[in-house]
Structures
1.
Amino acid sequence: MGMTITQKIMAKHCHKEYVEPGELVMADIDMALANDITGPVAIEEFKKAGAKKVFDRKKVALIPDHFAPNKDIKSAELCKTLRSFAREQQITHYYEVGRMGVEHALLPEQGIVLPGDLVVGADSHTCTYGALGAFSTGVGSTDLAFAMMTGKCWFKVPETIKFVYHGKKNPWVTGKDLILYTIGDIGVDGALYKAMEFTGDALKNLTMDERFTMSNMAIEAGAKNGIMEPDEVTLEYVKSRARRDYEIFKSDDDAKYCKIIDYDVSKIEPQVALPHLPENSVSVYEVADVSIDQVVIGSCTNGRIEDMRQAARVIRGHKVHPYVRMIVIPATQEVYSQMIREGIMEIFIESGAAVSTPTCGPCLGGYMGILAKGERAVSTTNRNFVGRMGHPESEIYLANPAVAAASAVKGKITHPGEVVDT
Amino acid sequence: MIFRGRAWIFGDNIDTDVIIPARYLNTTDPQELAFHCMEDISPGFSKKVKRGDIIVAGKNFGCGSSREHAPLAIKECGISCVIARSFARIFYRNSINIGLPIMECEEAADFVKAGDELEIDTDKGVIKNLTSGSSYNAMPFPDFIKGIIQAGGLLNYARKAENRDV
């Protein structure tokens, strides 16, 4: 019986020829990741369990990104806990403010995660690396403490749902729209406990950054991971970044899927997910006259260079609406400096947007753009839950960077085509 | 294990941001987390809960972030057990790992009303509704899950197992 790419990576990491869905396995991990919120809890557990040394200092990544640069005294203490542990354990992949980025943008960019890897992270969006053809999934702090101690994590091998995207994309449709549409179709628990495998000819034309966005949001459908087979685009991305060997896995032709879902992308318009669930996605044309107070462009979902280019293309030569605050947060220092090199930084600043150093900040209602009661935001982030970005009576509309930028110009949710002639 | 308490009812897709909003994640102190548990959808929840009370919810309970602070906050505010139609994957794992008993049960999600007095036998997988007189079936806990919960979490369990050379 053939195996899916997910099965193959798991089999390899528990030294088996074959694993089947439902089987419980103890697998070796290539990277264990934590941030300033989940890391300190994991470190406490690690110490309580009497552990002295991490299993491999090169295979642990600790990134202070959620409330960093430190937003208050308590956050400063959390970051300090992470920093002290990183120094004490001589962790290779600890990135300080000024060098750090949003973890799920930073790790692939720095070649810390690679195709064929098995990665666990104490952050639900760890599934992002599936875009590289890696198996990666979010865990809690206790699982992460165990992983840091032993280099292992147990899993139930998931069944896979295959998503096939074909056809030609409409203007301004991106990976973000494909995944929002998919979540809208199957629901926020539509892939609960399962692997999502993204395939089809329409994916070939997606940039690496758009692919990261798709895999990133697999968790918003409840999935364990969201994976794609590596192709030329993947290999081109990885080529200049990898500093160790990696392995390319592909699903067998006779691999078994619990479901196969087909989408004709020519029928998909830019999407907006209405409050308060990512599954509430509709075409931007269906959202009439929703005025907004804030726009956020950034996060592990849409804070990469391609996202910045799209937003800049829309806002160039326009001004942010007088009633709107537009906050742009490049996800990493590399994205930040690339924006300067390409003149994108100037476009945003000229338009009246605020540009910040990398942080998760407002995405999870931490800081750098909290919403007041009754306020509305269009955000390129991943979740629009009640109170996610501030007051429980505020609202978040999820969209791609071009829709977000167009909405910033008009002061209401807007199709980019209304701002830019295509 | 037997748990007995009043039911608190919640709907579908209760996410980790409403269980414990991220604005309070600048602490790891379970008591402080418990104080803010569910406050955005059920103000004053942590004060109203009595030790032993039980949450009964719809599908996909605990969806969203991987924050272990969510099951910690629920456990610390006195909830003895969470019953739901289904749980989000990471929340499920985290709950077991920190020693918060959770059970999937469609019938309970359908029929239990706010304030009903419930008695749960996790070994038998039986949930008795003492108020209505009905009873619902769930999967009993396997021994190792029972062991983890009794030890107060996965790492305590691992440590105990190590000492016993199991």
Note: The radius of gyration of chain B is 15 Å.
2.
Amino acid sequence: MADQVKISKKDRLSVWWRSTFIQGSWNYERMQNGGWAYSLIPVLKKLYTTKEDRAAALKRHLEFFNCHPYMASPILGVTMALEEDRANGADIDDVAIQGVKVGMMGPLAGIGDPVFWFTVKPIIGAVAASLAYAGNIMGPILYFVAWNVIRMAFMWYSQEFGYKAGSKITDDMSGGLLKDVTKGASILGMFILGALIDRWVVVKFTPVVSTTKLQKGAYIDWSSLPSGLTGVKEALIQQKDGLSLTMHQVTTLQDNLDLLIPGLAGLLLTFLCMWLLRKKVSPIIQILGLFVIGVGFHYLGIM
Amino acid sequence: MQLNAIQIILVVLVSFLAGMEGILDEFHFHQPVIACTLIGLVTGHLIPCVILGGTLQMVALGWANIGAAVAPDVALASVASSIILVLGGDFDAKGINSAFAVAIPLAVAGLLLTILVRTISTGIVHIMDRAAEQGSFRKIEMWQYIAICLQGLRIAIPAAMILAVGAGPVKALLHMMPKTLTDGLAIGGGMVVAVGYAMVINMMASREVWPFFAIGFVLAAIDKLTLIGLGAIGLSLALIYLKLEKSGGSGSGSGDSGAGGSNTGDPVGDIIDNY
């Protein structure tokens, strides 16, 4: 067959680059449809030459589409393969192409969200943020490089995979590998979330529960220290030995809570937010509410 | 402080970039740790802006655009708060804290702008429909670029407005805030992180993965473990679990939903639900 039209690697690279902009015209009616059609244009241009064919192809790809933006890449790959077969005379109708798109976008979005938004991003973000928090310029650089290398590599290889697997990919979806990746990501994600809640949700209660007078010898007796720098040295040595700086031991509510397990209040707050979310309380309201509580409690001296 | 013309142009450009990325979610120029750094870079106050970015990033870790839902807008929050930090001229911890405090209301305001632009885009795809009927690739491309530019302007215009108002009013506004308010907002900032994490947990939780959450929580209390160390432990646990599950044969776990958002088989979730 002499007149076979083939999609070249250059076309596929072009689609890969364009799919970076897939969410550009995100809208409430058909979501990523504009970006989807925009991404496929290099392929459609090559495959179809008459005005009627081109119009039909564009209309076909302006249908509803919404997926995780990176997970759209394997679907683009499969769709390219289907369009290529169709342009070369295979019997693939509009319904089949739309069916593949819709059939894949749900499950794949279900993988993309936990893997990228809830595992890769919090981990890279937390490392970068803690560096940046200390004023280290490596924080932002690390985030930018790591995120984009992972993203671009994933998008290219999954699009190639989709193109090669063609319509067979839907079978692979039910296969073991992707399921393992999803499960592994949610295990790692939950583990890291637990750690992040302990480290970064800061809830501190300031009320003093008890003030006990310490025994003599348990605190630094400032009046009996030698004067001058030797006195400072002596005080520091005594403090290192575990002596208290004051005569009283102050126990705050926070100290008591920390004895149970550090970060408990933060954990309970997170559970409260989960409960509120399930009761359909908007996250925005929760965020504003927590600020109001922060200011209010601080004013009252509780936090 | 006052910015010169070139700096102003660069700040607006960075804002435009952040606005585009706010919807594209690809290069992540809108993430606080990057957007604040870029503003710091072009205005010559790199390190305070990096610190502000790190602080904001911590809050925004769990925010994600899922499906049709939009998270609070980090693009406007990071760009505007770092411009305010630079204009305000206070680069100590207090200055960074008060810039951080204004960032959150800005994130909510940015959300409204996002919704507005997404509604305008609905009109744009109807224009694309007509272009499709004519088989015109060029017009569809053009409207895609216009839609992206609108998202850029969504942040660039407010940024330019803050620059136009100038340092004086911004500074006055920041100084008007009483100390109880700024301190209280900082305390609130420590807590709002929980909302993002709660959203994520609601998506991922299942009976199978709750124990890993508990292990992570308890291990994090050991101060000597860095996040990278914790990541290595978590990754190893996941690999071990997957391996054991396979060799375990009968696959008792295979009936559970893995991730993917279903809340069935999530005991803690059920308790929370029924409470």
Note: The first strand of chain A starts at residue 208 and ends at 213.
3.
Amino acid sequence: MIEIKNLNYSIKGKQVLENINLTINDGEFAAILGPNGAGKTTLLKIILNLIKDYQGSILVDGTNIKTRPEKRIIGYLPQNETFDIDFPATARDITLMGYAGIKGLFKRFSDTDRNIADNCLRKVGLSGKESQYIGSLSGGEFQRVLLSRALISDSKYLFLDEPEASLDKQGVAGFFELLRQLNKTGKTILVVSHDINILTKYCSLLICLNRTLHFHDKAELFNSEIITNMYGEATRILEKDY
Amino acid sequence: MISDIFQYRFLTNALIAVVLSAAATSQLSVFVTLKKMSFLGEAFSHIAFAGIALALLIGTEFTITTLLFVIIVAILIGVVSKYYHYQETNIVTIFLSLSMAIGIILLNLNRDYTPDITSYLFGNVLLVTANDLLYLSILVIANLAFVTLFFKEMFYLTYNFNVATLYRIPANTVYYIFTILLAANIVVSVKVIGVILITAQLILPGITALNLTRNIKLAMILSFVFAQIGSVGGLLLSFRYNLPSGASIVILLFIIFIASLAVKTKN
């Protein structure tokens, strides 16, 4: 369970997050939704302990992450990961990257580590592509490799920052279907996204953020009034055309 | 011709020096190429010029003085660009020009005997001393230890530095060690190949190897092989035809690179 208590965060005097109180239970498929600059990615980075100079507390399974940073929490898929198309890394190499920090300095990956990486790639539907160079993968396949990398730490939590950004409509649906399967196997998922349609379809918990929390409840209770409050103007939901 | 080399101590030293210098720089070459750090290599070599001028002026040991000078300037570049939020490349360019300017003034201030500065600009392998061979040997071992111990970290920070940091890979620490090692390689190899030409020795073996394979470990082995062929071959050509050694080495490395392009195009 992730508990956020009285969280406040400012950058150069500008309040980015204000008095956030939030609980994400185990097994939840939660989404953070909000306009650009609402503090979604910042909130995610605070939960991941990548930003530390905040006020308030973040408890993961009852442990304050500031005082006892938990190494195995890193099941993270960052936003818009760029790479050189000629970089000589295979899908397996990139998956193992998620384990490199845990493995530590001066230690090489073993055959067991490589088997675990291959197993993660199988889970995301990339069996047989382990030795394929990332430059030769499609956008959807590469996104799945990144998901595989997020899985290898064996964290019970999975954090994703706008995973739909580089995918077409079909790719987004397939990717969220995969996330749903992972959620069913017990992963607690927290995804940051702009796409209201896809989130209301797949997520069980919606967290609407625009500096402060505007909504934090079951996805089916979400309505247009909340959207208007959050975005600060009358908003019409359109099916997103990728 | 080979037997002639072993008849004279300074020629034997020259051969050992190019073998060691190529062995050292070729180990870093693949990562320098993949991380697109050729500009930093270029900058370090020009900053080394000011260090050389300083060592000549104050009469201290050349390698240590120059290395300290380059490391101090490298730290200054890092501090200024981070503290004042400048693009690192802009600050590197400023310090590169500044170092050349300082170097020229320091040489001008030197009223005593000034050795032929072209030896440092373009290399003169015949000036290599026993101390230089010792430093080069230490670098070969240090580079080998570095790429063996930090291969995993270097691979991932080269792929994407920020993402490596997110996954708690100690990218900053490893990158700083790599940068210092790079500076040391440039300074120590200056006598062999020269300030102006050292970047070519740092880049060409790696880029040539990566034209032939995408397996990074194999590329490192090929980089070593090409560096040796280019360096020993270049030195022998320079002896045979009475040419400058540094320039001969670079031209031979370039010819190997051009040949590798044919394979890359075919693939």
Note: Residues 81 and 87 of chain B are 6 Å apart (CA to CA).
4.
Amino acid sequence: MIDVLKLGKTFPLQASQGQAQSVTALHDINLQIIKGSIVSLLGPTGCGKSTLLEILAGLQSPTTGEVRLEGLPFATPIPTDKKLLKAYQRQHRFLSPQANRLFHNRPRHDIAMVFQDYAVFPWKNVLDNVTFTLSIVGVPKQQSQEIALGYLDKVGLLSSKTKYPSQLSGGMKQRLAIARALCVQPKIMLLDEPFASVDELTRQQLQELLLHIASATKVTIVLVTHDVAEAVYLSDKIFLFTPTPGTIYKTIEVNSPRPRRRSDAELVALQNQISTSFR
Amino acid sequence: MRKYITTSNVLLILLLGLFLYPLPSGKIYWLLALLAIVLKISQLIIKSFSSNEEKRKSTADVLAILYLFFGLWHLFSARYIILSKLLFPEPEVVFKMFFAELPDLLQHLLHTLILLTNGYVLALAVAIPLGLIIGTNKRLLNVADPYMRVLGPIPPIVYIPYAISLLPTFQLASIAVIFLGAFWPVFGNTIHGVLNIPRNLIDASKVLNLRGTTLFFKVILPGAMPSICLGANLSLLFSFLMLVAAELIGSSVGVGWYIRHFGAFGDYPRVISGLIFFGLIVTIITWGTGRIERHLLKWTDTVK
């Protein structure tokens, strides 16, 4: 269970006159994500949905409010007061206080993220990308090889395990990114517009893959997207965002049973309803 | 039959004719003919080892130009003496001189290589770690930036006279000068490489909970590697430049000194031998570093 409580994020911005200004990316976000569900954050570009995902991933810290994971505080604002900040930094000596906080006092690697532009390591081949991730969690080498091959098989990349990412197509890179995210058996998977840069046919394949994974592993999936059809087809719950400042404008439950059909009248009607609500 | 009639083969036959047709004095250039055949054989060997079809074709063309050059040189300096005898010695004289001087040249090379490897390796050993550290630390980067802007563009050759007077031995002075010449390109490029690692890769590493030395060696170092290699190549060229410049100015050994010394006596066969020798050595070294680079960057799609 993820609870987001009164979350706000403002970015400082240096104005041309030298006066410090700030942009509010997120304002008063409240949402709840139930364990094992698939949730979409849907909205036009620039509405702060990616920022919210980055806060959930621990890549950024909120300015106000907090995120609770299973009732425990997970992401809280970095103190602005100088003294408090010093104490905070002492507590988190590593590269990024957020990343540090993320794994503080809790089982590691219960969160995995898939990025829009893949973010697989280009200097490692397909197999090494996965085994490297496993080695970070502390899986012994012999075992990690086996596990990695299993996950590559699951995403259909077994035949190109010795290739480098530069030799793969966009869809294959995203499969690799998914395999890498899955291999540590996360409880939560965050996907930031994962299928935005692949073609329509590959996108449908990858969506099926994601649904298959979700039903097989019971992982909680948080998906950021600007594709209405994708959100409706995949999600149990859709949060609609509006930009400047980013707020949740509407929450929609998708109750139609799985497996769904893309052309299902109920889903299409819902798509139209969402599309018109943005106008 | 047709496939044997290539430009390089036709030129080879013409060249052999030119070398083996006796002069009025009865002289036949057996050695040069042998050289032409050896070149052809080595081209065939290289051709059979190269995997790329385009490269395979180009070896013959490269050889053809070499044959043409040798042919014209021989024609105008030995058969019809149009060029000045002093400035353009015959190919055969240079060829014989090259082999006669080879032991000497190798000895000079040893001195040169000691300077080169010391200066260059020292520059890499200091610049790469320093660049990685400064590139990952914003505060250090802001401090280093003005120094890089001021010190970086100073042409390293201007340090030579001062370095020679400042340091006790010529060897130390040249190493220092090569170090200065080689340091900035690789340093700047290492920092550049670190700063240009795609943000999403760093984000991905953070989500994977990477930090400390693992992050440094498994993400930042390989991520900056293309840029580091670029800088290292530039540095190598700078090192050659600085090396020869230093030897021309203040040494009494080394290949650069050899060329300058015999140039002063007007001994041009030796000078040309020295030039050819230096060219060969530089080729071998850059071929070697190219192999290393290809191995390090085998994951990029530009290096094949």
Note: The interface with chain A takes residues 198, 200-201, 203-204, 206-212, 214-215, 218-219, 222-223, 225, 298-301 of chain B (CB under 8 Å).
